[in-house]
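Researcher: Structure prediction, please.
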Amino acid sequence: MQVVEPAPLSRKERERLSRRNAMLEAAQSVFAEKGFGPASLDEIASRAEFGKGTIYNYFPGGKEEILFALLDQFYDGLIEVIEGHSPTGGDAPVRERFRVFLSQMFAFLEQRDDLFLIGVKESHRHLFGDDADKAAYFHGRRDLVVSALARPLKEAMDRGEIKHMPPVAAAHMLLGNVQGCYTHVCLCQRYGTETGDTLGSAEQNAEFLTAMLFDGLLTKD
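Model: Predicted structure follows.
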């Protein structure tokens, strides 16, 4: 089947995309410094060097629409990492393939730790809040990430490389462990406390979580 290449963007479209990205980058830095709640659209406009009215032209919903645009980028990027670095296939032992896979996930989070923490905070706030639409957004986004993780897990199960278990439940567990591990690292960095000898970098985090998943806590007899 012939792949149809998308038409190149016009100069006007490129300029509009560049402005939008500049606004998102400015908002991300303001949210990281102030938190989403205290951050103001005036600060975002000043940081982006655009008028407040121009911001509304691109994001009519104001800073909340900007937040969800940033989170869309984050979740889409995470799914791309999962689908692009599947631990299935290849000649290396399955444990090593999963370690490399987890290292790629942690490296992605490391490069976007501001968005990661914003996403964790806002997802908890809305998932247990009263706004059904926002709760559905975070629930739906998590389901997409879990589905992307469940596919390689099921493939590994079908090949007999890992134990058979419900792949979606296993994907939820894996995602929860990645999130919990990196939240711990971020909080330790923020408050200047020690993460421990085995945590910190993407490689260290991946090695730690791989050992937990494949080796467990029990010493061998």
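Model: The chain has a mean pLDDT of 90.
Researcher: Thanks, that helps.
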